[in-house]
Amino acid sequence: KKKKKKKKKKKKDPDVGGRAQIVFTASNYKTTTYVSPFTVSLNGDITVVITATTVLPSSIDWITCDYNAKTGQVGVSMHVPDDDLVQAISKLVVSDSKGQVLGTYRNLAFVHSGMELLYVGLETTQQQQQVTVHLYNYYSNAFYGISSFYFNGQSADKEFTIGPVDHIVRLYNISNASPGDLWTIYMTLDDGLAYGFAGRFSNALQPFPFAALPVDSQCP
């Protein structure tokens, strides 16, 4: 008799906890060649080499670390089953396979936000490249005043405000971007808080799926 092959159970998407993202510009990226795989160290006691075969600690559902050599941008995204882990992160270090450090950050502040990034799309024509950014404030009683807005490490917009339960779509001209490239958004609010987002460019008609966070894995 032939033995029946057991079907592998698909890992359930996490339905508790949440997603954290850290974005920054790599040190000396214009003069240094950084080589993957990258290693992310959290507080010095959790160290993860970003490869497909890495066995993750139980405190992390998934984690990615992307780097764009053209812009120097680094994006670390992770999903954790317990928000306490995120709140406890006091130091983050990202290094490459040669031990070269892309960045070290201390006293990180992670806050819950009513700001959602629903869509980032890249459109390329013969004349120009343009990126569409769709932001949504789902809070019913809070205005978000954006005092600075950076796309791929470059100042991209003047001050603007998003009202309660309001959407805003911004268009930015960019250059030298390709599908699959890492993009980053970094914005500061009037109250001094800062937010970062990261993902990879896809076809303009295929948005990066942020809207369901943190219900499913949303792993890029």
From TrEMBL:
Q: Which domain of life is it from?
A: Eukaryota
Protein name listed in UniProt: Uncharacterized protein
Organism of origin: Reticulomyxa filosa
